[in-house]
Every structure is written in structure tokens, then in C-alpha cells.
Amino acid sequence: MFIELSITSNFTFLTGASHPEEYVNRAALLGMAALAIADDNSVAGIVRAHTQAKMIARAVKERQAFDTQHGLIGPPQPDHLPNPPRAPFTTTPRLIPSARLLFSDAPPITVLPFDRQGWRSLCRIISRGRLRAEKGECDLQLQDLEEFAEGLHLLVWPHAQAVQGGAVDWVHTAKRLTRRFAGNIHVLMSPRYDGRDTVRFDRLADQARMLGLPTLASAAPRMHHGARRKLADVVSAIRLKCRVDALGRAALSNGEGRLRSEAEMLRLFVGHEEAVHRAGQLANSLIFSLDQLRYEYPSEITRNETPSQRLNRLAYEGLKWRYPGGAPDKVKTLLRHELALIAKLKYEPYFLTVRDIVHFARSRGILCQGRGSAANSVVCYCMGITSVSPEMGTMVFERFVSEARDEPPDIDVDFEHERREEVIQHIYERYGRHRAGLCATVVHYRGKRAIREVGRAMGLTEDTISALSSQLWGFFSTKGLEAERMAEIGLDFRDRRLRQTIELVYEINGFPRHLSQHVGGFIVTEGRLDELVPIENATMEDRTVICWDKDDIDSLGILKVDVLSLGMLTCIRKAFDLLKMHHQQSYTLATLPKEDPRVYDMLCKADSIGVFQVESRAQMNFLPRMRPRNFYDLVIEVAIIRPGPIQGDMVHPYIRRRNGEEEVSFPSDELGQVLGKTLGVPLFQEQAMQIAIVGAGFTPDQADRLRRSLATFKKHGSVSEFRALFLHGMRKNGYKDDFAERCFSQIEGFGSYGFPESHAASFALLVYASSWIKCHHPGIFACALLNAQPMGFYAPAQIVRDAREHGVKVHPICVNASYWDNTMEPDGKGGLALRLGFRQLKGMSEEDASWLTGARGNGYQSVRDVWRRAGLMPTVIVRLAEADAFAAAGINRREALWEAKALAPGPVLPLFATDLDGEVVDEPAALLPEMTLGENVVEDYVSTRLTLRAHPVGLLRHILTPGAAPIGMLPTTQTAPDLSKTSFSRGNPD
User: Fold this and answer.
1) Strand duo 412-416 + 368-371: pairing
2) Radius of gyration in angstroms for the set of CA atoms belonging to the chain, rounded to a whole number
3) Which of 179, 295, 529, 704 has its Cβ near the most Cβ atoms within 10 Å?
4) How far apart (Å, rounded) are the C-alpha atoms in residues 593 and 581?
5) Distance CA 709, CA 689 (A)
6) What residues are paired with 99 via a beta bridge?
7) pTM
8) Spacing of C-alpha 71 from chain mean position
9) Residues 487-504: what's their mean pLDDT?
């Protein structure tokens, strides 16, 4: 029996030419019982191979169960005929975790763990090398392998390794390792397909015999099939930064370096058949599987309490905090039920971990909000993880925390985007870097990146590459590269090189390019994290990441706590601070006045510029049709304008039913229970799953697989695999094909971007909070929104213009009144005005603003005064002059700029700092022409990206509107009109 033990997948980035899943599928087709994915200094791809092997095993089991129950499909085979050749479809390959370690002082060695201890050793070795080097690199020495030797088997590659001052022969390395790994070493023999393999094998066998080491055969494949040879050369060219034509010896000489069957290996290793069989014998002794990784939550045990006791205490303390006048009986009953279910499933440490993280954030004044499958529960509400009260929520706890799903519930926590790093560093400090790390994100080749890099490798010109990229719609799309589209941009699709490039672009699409860090998915363990999975340095300072992404850890059942950032939370927290400062009103997300009719009136008018989630053009067009009047309407509003409901054609039927234009009906009583609250129209991800269970008859296992495939931003398109099963089940249960097709179309939409009800409820609370602030305090809302930039759809110019439309007086940037942040100040009429801050000024840093405001005293009188007292560089003072920040000191923009340009860099010389008794002749004042309104508007946009003078199009009104007077012809006794209020409706902020 032959087992391939040294496979290179495309997770050896820009080297391997096949996915781990493709190797597993090919191994099943070849009848190979096991295989080892051994990427260079990495185990990043093995979970995908492991998951694929489990899928094959499940499919084979289902096929065998079907054949047993129904018999074989088709006519029976006559007894006198021999069995026809067929693929061994009952083979279920087993993944053997491994890695190929590259050393700076030794030849490569493929390392195979025997058991769980061996896996610990391998993870520690890779982590040691990764943490020693920068991101993406690994610096290993042979002594690292010797230090963590327990439970490992080695395959030594017979190559010489170049080192400083010469080279290290593999024989020397093998002799050194035999002292530490006696009986657990093989010499790896792999063909080069150059016509000299037989002689080479004989020589290696003789050398191994002299060392007392057995040989082992491997094809050392870089691709699962020979058809990938061209792509293998392309990724090599990308890695080496050259054209395919210039690869030379780095190119593959043929397509033989593929995964091979036992028969092929015996043919290649004639005379060394024992080396082929030893691979199978060794594989039988390698019993470790990724299924043996038993992940343990942090116990969260304190000195005097068990996790269960602590969770109960905190929950009931929080109940008194949330309901000082006493909680309703319904809430108390729900709390008891949830605590009992959590205790039964032993999830207490998970909830305590999230609670402690949130508690730290609140202790630092960092606004946060939990969301996710279990976030909108009474337990999370009482512990402060979420501010969505049980009265607002509609979810059933068991839908997300159930006995049927043996995995932890999902809770994501959003923090202020400016202060999330404090929370991340707290997690590292609390649990230690040996117990906590961020998930990875695999950056894949998609669309434009694939065209750019493949095109350069194939030698296409930059203008041709740009023309090809211009044909793509969407960042991840590769559609639009057909012959007709090529002809439209002047390219001849019959050209052999161009056609081959397009084929390779399609082929490389979806290949991993490199690892990046997840936006905030944290893995926290009870023991050492680097004994569960290798960890490495991230690009950002003080960050460490693991090599598996969120899908990998989900497959292995590992806890992930998402520590995410949200700009709107920064905005709301800053608005709360301003309300407390200027109005002495203290609010939190949970204590804002509920169900305010004025807030809903504002939203019904689509007055939602800057409001969280409903500020897009699509949402603003939909708000007057939706006419939200309560919190749950906002939940639907958040979720309905998404690819899922839109693709499934669910938006218009819902609106017609809501407005009474269409009768509310349900396909069946069973689905009526699922779709009742959304008027018989599925809008949420959970409803799509419930339709599959109730309507299509999915089993719990099938439903769970469907749920996994609905993961947000999933890019593998696995939802469509359930199409036939779904449609067949719906038809079998009596549902119309049209309804079934629309439901599945919605499910496919969720595969691209699904929005569950639990997340929508959390986001709806932020919609209401931001709407309430905007409705009652538009100036404070605009100020906080500007201080939280960059975020949202709208630029500062639109935010300021919208605030002025709501009656907010806005003051310009001023050297004597502004600070770094935008502020609120008295407007002289008993109200508040918005003063623009220096953060709106291009080219000015917060440090410069601190020096300017710190030295301001009673105010600056001149440009030179700012230079002397604040110590700012002349270039910064020029930026202030360009922004007209000296206007309050009686110096217009042009005069200030003239003076700023005269400033010389460096310290002021005392001798020339003042007038010496008339000995210094004053420079005559320059008579500079006054700037026109149009010139001032242009300079405003250049320096601050907004203007308080006039809308730019207003300057052309007399041209665009016959009979209108030019702005320059208006009476000079009046200030220039704010045409931004009168020229355009709110529907067009541009």
C-alpha cells in the first residue's frame, strides 16, 4: 500500500498549484486511503483538507445507506460478465497532519506527528520560527526541532543546504538527528523526472543503508493533476517577480510532479518497491487526527466561585441593575430558563469571557454593543453585553443555544473604532500571548488582482491589463472576460497568449495569496494556544495571529470571540459626552427614551443623513415606503435592504402586504409559525434556515451544514450544493415550485451576504440611538459625526450642509477659537453653534493643534504671532492661512498667506526679532487684490473639503437658470446667500 506523505498545496503560497481539497478528492479517486499535506513551515491548509475528507466520508456513507435501502440504480449486471472498470468511490481518505520544515542550517525535513503530543511539538516548533521572524517569514534552526522532539517522525530530504561559509550535507544532518530520533527517521526519495532517477535512487539507498536508515518513496507533488503545470509556472513567475518566459530552470520541465497512485509509484521505483510500501506502513502508525484536538474554554474560575455560581450571581445582580423597580415575571422566567440551559450545556465560561471583556471596556468608558446568535438574550442584557432589552427582542434562545448543536453560541461585540486596540491589548494582558491570538484571514486571488498578477507574469502590457480589469463588475467577479467583451476594448481574443492568460485567470481565481489578520476574531484557550495551533507575528505591532481562518476554527469547534470596531459607536459615545457637557443629560444605549414618535416621523421623511445603517440611497428611498413606527420596524428596515431579500424578490411583496395592498397568506400552517412576524415573507437568515427544516425537511445535520454555508461574506459558493435537495424537499411537502425557487434564491443571496435577525436587532438599536440624537440635538450629532470621521457614506461637506438645513449655526475654523476636535459653543442667542476644528484641515496633525491651542492664551494677533508662540513650522501656518483661519484676527486669506510665505524655517534670531529703535526699515504693506466669492469657495474645498459660503453650483445659477441674478450682482450690504439651503433638495446632497 502506498500513501503520499509529502504534498505541497497552494498554502505554500505561490508554489503549490492545487487546493488541499483537490488533493483529497484526487486521493479518493486514486483509491488512496490517506495522505499528508506538508506545506512549507505551515499547517494553514490542513483543516480544509480534513473537512473535505469528512465530507467525502459522509457522502460515501449516505450513498452506501441508499444502496442498502433501495439497491443499485439501473439494470442488474449479468453474472457471466466481468466487473467493468470503475473508480473506487467508496474510498474515504484520511488526512495526516504534517509540515515541511525549512531550516537555515539544515536540509528540509517533513515532520509527521504520531499523536497529540507530536502535534503539540510541531506547533511549538513552527511558532518558534514564526515569532522569531517578521510576518510571512519563518526562521528555524535544527536545534528547535531537537528541543521539541517528542511524538514526531522525520522524513529527511537528501538535499544540501547552503549556509554562510559553505553548505551542510544532508548526511551530516541525518547522523545528528539519529541520536535524538532513533527509529523515527526515513530518508525521502522523490523523482525529478530527468532520466537519472534510477541512478539517484540507487545512490541514496546506499547512503541510507550506511547510515542505518530506511528509505521512503514520495512523488512530492506540487499539483493534484498534470493539467496544473501551466498554473504552477505562473505562480512561480509571480513569486520570483519575472515573466514566465524568463523562468529558466525555475519552470517545471514537465507535468509529472503530480499526485500518483500506488501502481505508478511502483513503476517509478523499480528495484526500490520496499520504499513505496514503507509509506503505507508508516501511515498506519500515524494515528493523530485533527478530530483529537479537544479545545478547552478558559475556565474563568475565581477563588471562591465556580463558573456556574459566578454567572448566576452576575446575572441576578444585573437584573436588579437593569430593572431597579423590579423585573417583569416574563423576564425572570426567561432568565431562569436560559441559565438552566447554559448550565446544562456547560457554556458558562464562554459567557463569562465575553462579559469580562465588555466589563473592561465599560470600566474605561468605551462604548460597546454585543450582537450575534446569543447576544440578544436576557443573560447578556443583564450582564451588560447588549442593550437590546428582552421586550425589544423576538428571538428564541434555543434557536441559537440548543442541545442539538454541540458548539458554543456566537456573540460578537462591537467597540468604538478609535479605542478597540485598548480592548485587544487587554485580552493579551489578561490571558497572555501564549493563550490568546487573532484568527487569520486568507487573502484569495479575485478578479482584478488575478488579472494584474497573471497578466504581468504572462507578459501582457500594462495598458492591456488595465483594459482587461476595466471589464469586471464587482471586486470579486471574473465575469465579463468573454470574446465579445474583449472585442469591445480592441483586444483580439484569438491571440494565443491573451486566450491562455484568460484561462489562467479563471484557474487561479480563488487561490490563496497570503494570510492576513481577521478584523477581530480572538481565540482564547485554557492551556497554551501554541500547542493547539501555530501562532505568528502580525504586521501590526503587538499583535499575534494563528494560521487558521474563521471557517477552519468553526470546523474544529474552537471558541472565537469577535472583538470588532464600529465607527457609529464612537460617534454615539462622543455625542453622549457632549450632551452631558452642555445639557447635563446622561444617557446610555439602554436609557434613551424609547419609541419617540418624533424620531419615527423624521425617519419616515428619509431625513437620515449620517444615521447608522439607513443613510444609503437605497435605504432613504425605502424609508418613506416602509414608514417605521416602532422598534421592530427598524429591525426589518435594517435587514430588508440586503442581497438576500432583494435577490429572492421578497422586498416588494412585504411592502404590499404591510400597506394592505396584498393579502397576508402563508404557504402552510407550519411555515406560518416561522413567517408570521414578517407577514409571510422570509426576510431573515434564521427564517431561511427554518424554511429548509420545516418546509424542505432538512435533517439537523443538513440544516447545520446549510447554516455554515450561509456564513457572512462566504466566497466559496457552497450554498448552491443544497439546491436539488431543497427543491425536492419543498416539492415533496406540497409547496409550489415558484415559492421554492424564490426561497432558495433568497438563501443563495444570504450565501453572499446574510443578515440574521439577532444582528438586525442589535443594529436597529444603534439606528434608533443615532436617529434620536439627530432628531433632538442635530448640532451635537453633526459635531460627534465629524469627530468620528472617516466613516459612513457622506463627506464632511454633506454632514455640515445637512446640519445647517436643520438650523444649526456653523462657525469656521479659527486660530483663536478652534480645537483639534469640532466643538459646540454658545451662539449668542441661548443656543449652541458648531465650531469646526483643526481635524477638518488637510495637512495638520493633532500634535500641531495641541501646540497651537496650548500657546493661545488670550488669542493670536498676527500670523507671525502664531509662528513665534506656538512654534509651528511655516508649512503648517501656510495650511492655516489657506483655510482662512486668521479671519477672526482681521487678516483675510490672501494677506495671511502672504505673511505665512514670508516666514523662514528655523528658530527666530533675537537680534532681528524686534524693531531696533528704527534701525530696521519696515517692509511696505502689499496691496493684494481681494479674492472673489468663487475663489474663496474653491480654496475652502481645497483646504478643508467643505465651505460655509455658497454651494459651488450656486455660482453658476445665473447660467443654469435663465433670469437669475449672478451672485456678484446681489446687494453688497448683505452677506453671500447660503445657496446650499435653497438650490437643492435634501434628496441630492451633491
Assistant:
1) antiparallel
2) 34
3) 529
4) 19
5) 11
6) 111
7) 0.82
8) 47
9) 87
